[in-house]
Design goal:
Blueprint lengths: L19 H17 L4 H16 L6 H6 L6 H32 L15 H16 L19 H12 L5 H16 L1 H14 L6 H10 L11 E3 L10 H20 L22 E4 L6 E4 L5 E6 L2 E6 L10 H12 L8 H4 L9 H13 L2 H12 L3 E4 L12 H11 L10 E5 L5 E5 L6 H18 L25 E3 L5 H20 E8 L4 H6 L4 H17 L5 E6 L8 E5 L3 H10 L6 H23 L5 H14 L4 H8 L4 E4 L21 E3 L7 E8 L3 E9 L7 H16 L6
Parallel strand pairs: 4-6, 6-7, 11-13, 13-15
Antiparallel strand pairs: 1-8, 1-14, 2-3, 4-5, 5-9, 7-8, 10-16, 11-12, 15-16
GO molecular function, one term: carnitine O-palmitoyltransferase activity
Membrane topology: Multi-pass membrane protein
Subcellular location: Membrane
């Protein structure tokens, strides 16, 4: 077991489903708390009452009394004036504290990002003291500090262009770089000035000038199928969880129901104690991406009483709360799941069994099918609402998943099944897939949020399940368990019997055929690298993330002999309503390192020096992005504005047309609640996503404690330029070669 058990779980373990009054009470409580923060509501109330009492009995010649008696007002008017004066007196210090100390200093100051942790300035020390005191005296709720975060700044056009040119200089040929440089100069002198002005004006009316455009045009406007192209998959832990399928799903539903309500109540500790934006959590549960003819939209139900479960060709709904609105216990949910797994329902037809594949198709096709076969059919419309309003969609499989170090191909299949499985409700924010042996994974819809929210959710789940939940001492085989008769009062799973016409069945068959083509084209290779972890990397004085990024660059150069556009997802969460920014990995320093590694004239010390320089440069650019000095979101917004204004820009057209041949991301460990080193079995195996262009790779990696690196590589088999298995071999080789540079240290 891990060395330390937390004193408190990350979410409340007992909760009720809210009725309308309770929901209003929660919202009112959060609004008052957040509007008065950092002053406690009770303290504000005492101050307000004290002010009212003082002004009501103030001396006759005092200012308050003169103000109250300024005119011959009625008692009602005098009471209103007295109340207003008392409120202003009580709220004035709150207003000054919120706007001068919090908004203008604590949450705006970013100087610590520019400094060496070993050489901290006086200003940063003062900031740390104020921030530490604030956290201790007034711990914020989930969304409390979002109002204090600064708006994301619009970078100077000149700076963005310069950073862009530096990032592509080593990728383009000399002739093409000269041409792009001329396009950039022409853009900067002509249409760029006007578009930049529009961007700045737009930013005055938005707390974040990027996010609305990014969500709309990077995600919701895309007509591609969601699975593989947009969704993100994840798998289980190193160890097998000691549970059969029914018990594991019961844990899942129970914990996720409480997590959903904890978000609604804002009872989750915010990341960074409020320094980073937390407004996207509300979209994690009970959210559906509704297809549109030209653009989708998100519909959030905020919270829901039930989950949708797919089992043996049918969709069922399972209530997570009882008739008294209490969340069902794990034992009660296990009974419901066992009863479902032991049913002998009539076998589903092929069309019924594959009905969810309608959601796997292109968004415009799914929009038409949803309209025709669901919204225009009264029965199906009602059942569709039940599926879309569920807070989870869970798929129960008859086969088993596992991670076996002796048979790595099993993890390849496991992760590929999570990313491009046969049955998913692709519109749902969260899909969970549970094998017969209780091993599970999932698939998330990317438009609702990013890695920070998903990782926080995953780590809270793992910590709560590990430290505060119990499993049976003996894992019973479901097939050998006597027929389960649930306790009286427990609501059983309810089958949703869709009306599947012949025309609908034919369309399901066509949709499935198109999806199978995409599914079979996905090439996925998993690498659980256990030779070393980030602990060894730190010995070489390198940032672990930068180290892996340089290894990816080295592997790519070995395979293709050239440098390509490389996307790494980076955080811009210090700003209001923010999401991500692109960290462009390729730089002069990274290229110099890669070439040195493959050149025998450089000795080990020289190669190490170039590696450390490249890692330091990468780390510095990552910090600049945290300060709002990125390249791609700014250029993306300028491109969208140019299209909206009907302005043609050769430079922006060139920029937007360049493919991200390498798309990479690292799901970070954001809470450190679980010690993944004292027991490696509690290490999360990580996540994956598909490549973003036909001839490219998607590379997702995470550090398993100090001991391993979990890496997943995706590409398309139809591309003659990619091979995930070969890239995996080259990446492993590169990691070892790079670590050998500081083997003597």
């Amino acid at each position: 077991m891990p060395s330390k058990k937390p004193k408190q779980p990350p979410i409340p373990l007992e909760d009720r489903y809210p009725n309308k009054f309770t929901q209003w009470r929660w919202d009112f409580s959060n609004t008052v708390f957040n509007r008065l923060y950092p002053v406690k509501p009770w303290l504000f109330g005492v101050t307000l009452a004290g002010s009212f009492a003082y002004y009501n009995r103030a001396p006759i010649d005092s200012f308050p009394t003169k103000f109250l008696n300024l005119a011959n007002d009625s008692d009602v008017i005098r009471l209103l004036k007295l109340s207003g004066l008392s409120f202003c007196t009580a709220y004035l210090p709150v207003f000054l504290l919120r706007n001068l100390l919090l908004r203008l200093f604590i949450f705006r100051y970013k100087g610590f990002l520019k400094e060496d942790p070993k050489k901290v300035s006086i200003t940063t020390r003062i900031w740390a003291l104020c921030y530490g005191t604030l956290k201790k005296l007034a711990p914020p709720r989930l969304e409390t500090c979002d109002a204090f975060l600064p708006a994301q700044p619009v970078p100077a056009l000149r700076d963005t262009i310069e950073r862009y040119l530096v990032s592509v200089e080593c990728i383009l040929s000399e002739e093409e770089f000269i041409r792009v440089k001329e396009l950039a100069a022409d853009f900067q002198q002509k249409e760029g000035k006007w578009l930049q002005l529009c961007c700045r004006i737009y930013s005055l009316f938005k707390r974040n000038y990027v996010t609305d455009f990014w969500e709309k045009y990077a995600y919701l406007y895309s007509r591609k199928p969601l699975l593989v192209n947009s969704s993100v998959a994840h798998v289980d832990l190193f160890r097998d969880v000691p549970a059969n399928q029914a018990v594991r799903v019961a844990h899942m539903v129970h914990l996720e129901a409480m997590h959903m309500l904890a978000i609604v109540r804002q009872k989750i500790k915010p990341l960074g104690d409020g320094l980073v934006y937390s407004g996207h959590y509300k979209k994690l549960y009970a959210t559906n991406r509704v297809p549109g003819e030209t653009m989708d939209h998100l519909k959030s139900y905020r919270h829901s009483r039930h989950v949708a479960i797919y089992y043996k060709g049918f969709i069922y709904t399972v209530e997570a709360f009882d008739a008294n609105n209490r969340v069902y216990s794990i034992d009660q949910l296990t009974q419901v799941l066992l009863e479902l797994l032991q049913r002998n329902d009539v076998a589903a037809s092929e069309a019924e069994a594959k009905l969810p594949t309608l959601t796997h198709d292109s968004r415009d096709v799914w929009y038409k099918n949803r309209q025709k076969f669901f919204l225009e059919n009264a029965t199906n419309k009602k059942l569709l609402e039940r599926v879309e309003s569920a807070f989870l969609f869970i798929i129960l499989r008859d086969d088993e998943f596992e991670y076996d170090p002796e048979h790595p191909e099993k993890l390849d299949w496991f992760m590929k099944n999570m990313l491009a499985g046969n049955i998913r409700w692709a519109d749902k924010s969260l899909n969970y897939i549970v094998g017969r042996n209780g091993t599970a994974g999932g698939n998330t819809e990317h438009s609702i949020g990013d890695g920070a929210e998903f990782d926080h959710l995953m780590e809270n789940f793992c910590a709560t399940d590990l430290y505060f939940m119990t499993y049976p001492e003996v894992v019973e085989d479901i097939d050998s368990i006597p027929k389960c008769i649930p306790d009286k009062g427990i609501k059983l799973a309810e089958k949703l019997q869709f009306d599947v016409s012949d025309e609908m069945a034919e369309e399901i068959k066509l949709c499935n055929a198109r999806y199978v083509s995409l599914q079979s084209d996905l090439d996925l290779a998993a690498l659980i690298f256990t030779d070393f972890g980030k602990g060894r990397i730190k010995i070489g004085k390198c940032s672990p993330d930068a180290f892996v990024q340089m290894a990816i660059q080295l592997a790519n150069y070995k395979q293709h002999g050239r440098f390509v556009l490389t996307y790494e997802s980076a955080s811009s969460r210090f700003f209001a309503n923010s999401r991500t920014e692109t960290l462009r990995t390729v730089s002069k320093d990274s290229c110099a390192f890669v070439k040195a590694m493959l050149d025998e004239k450089y000795n080990k010390a020289q190669k190490l020096e170039r590696l450390q320089t490249a890692c330091k440069s990468h780390h510095t650019r990552n910090r600049e992005i945290m300060l709002g000095k990125g390249v791609d979101r700014h250029l993306f917004v300028l491109y969208i504005l140019s299209r909206a204004a009907g302005v043609s820009s050769a430079f922006l057209n060139y920029y937007i047309s360049q493919p991200w041949t390498l798309s990479t991301s690292q799901p970070p460990n954001v809470t450190n609640q679980v010690d993944e080193d004292s027991d490696k079995g509690h290490t999360w195996l990580g996540a994956s996503f598909g490549p973003v262009c036909q001839d490219g790779y998607g590379v997702c990696y995470r550090f398993g404690g100090e001991h391993s690196i979990c890496i997943y590589i995706t590409s398309f088999k139809s591309s003659s330029k990619t091979d995930s298995d070969h890239f995996r071999t080259l990446l492993k080789e590169s990691l070892i070669e790079m670590a050998n540079l500081f083997s003597d240290q």
